[in-house]
Design brief:
With 271 residues, this protein is mostly helical. The chain has one domain: Up-down Bundle (Four Helix Bundle (Hemerythrin (Met), subunit A)), CATH 1.20.120.1760. It is 75% helix and 2% strand. It has 10 helices and 2 strands; from the N terminus they run αααααβαααβαα. Strands 1-2 form a two-stranded antiparallel sheet. α4 runs antiparallel to α5. It is globular, with a radius of gyration of 23 Å.
Length: 271
């Protein structure tokens, strides 16, 4: 009898994970998969399989979007997960794109090309560090904006010259030795800048629009399968065009918020 109780107690003690731990582990597994995908993109670049390298970065971006949302959905967020996510972002959207572009184009520029890679990776790291120390005390309307371009978007945008070369577009001839360094400088600046960009984290889709959203998603991925690089180029251009739009929108909301606070203060003074 005592032996059976002892065995039952041992089973409880050696239980692999509790329900809480399972909720924490699942998002972290997705994050680690993202690390593997990011590192694999470097291997593809070393083998000059640049199409696969780009696809790997895009998949890593998808995984990055899923792990956080799943963590919040199943209440599995954790400090370890937050730090792990940042480390993954540095690898998948900092180191990996820099290596891909170095092997494809920047290597021909010698030390300057390597310097541009280092600057870009440092900017990704700084952008993530700033995001992690964000206090979260800002008004709720600010949650609809990122401060600067997020690292997944930066990792994809910096690959746009390579995507263009693979897309089959023949709109105009590009001098990649000039365009690639310019792209690196612009994207690096946008990463560490305080230019507000849409985050889309708190967008609420009305139930009546759900069917249209699903159709748009299916259509997007359908076109992505047929014309992957063409669609990514067009999407990247649209994203860059929306940066000034988001800036204007942010300034407008900020002005409205300041005006509302001033009116509230004046009302309190009168009372």
């Amino acid at each position: 009898m005592q032996k059976n109780k002892f065995m039952e107690q041992q089973k409880k003690n050696f239980k692999i994970v509790s329900n809480t731990k399972t909720r924490v582990i699942l998002p972290n597994i997705l994050t680690l998969v993202g690390v593997c995908i990011g590192l694999s993109s470097i291997k593809f670049a070393l083998d000059t399989k640049y199409e696969l390298a780009i696809i790997a970065i895009v998949f890593a971006a998808v995984m990055d979007g899923l792990d956080g949302r799943i963590a919040r959905l199943i209440k599995g967020t954790s400090k370890v997960g937050k730090e792990l996510d940042s480390l993954t972002d540095v690898i998948s959207f900092g180191v990996a794109p820099a290596f891909i572009m170095y092997f494809w184009s920047l290597k021909s520029l010698g030390k300057l090309g390597w310097l541009l890679c280092l600057i870009y990776v440092v900017c990704v790291a700084l952008r993530l560090a700033r995001f992690n120390v964000n206090s979260g005390d800002d008004p709720s309307w600010r949650d609809n904006f990122f401060e600067g371009v997020p690292s997944p978007a930066g990792g994809i945008l910096v690959l746009m010259p390579l995507m263009y070369s693979l897309s089959g577009f023949e709109l105009f001839k590009i001098n990649y030795q000039v365009i690639v360094p310019i792209f690196f400088v612009i994207i690096s600046f946008l990463l560490i800048s305080k230019v507000p960009t849409y985050s889309l984290k708190k967008i609420i889709v009305p139930r009546s629009m759900t069917i249209f959203l699903l159709f748009a998603i299916v259509l997007f991925f359908g076109v992505l399968l047929i014309y992957p690089f063409k669609l990514m180029i067009v999407t990247g251009i649209f994203y860059l065009c929306f940066v000034p739009v988001s800036l204007v929108h942010y300034l407008k909301l900020d002005k409205q918020n300041i005006t509302a606070n001033n009116q509230e203060d004046n009302h309190e003074d009168i009372l």
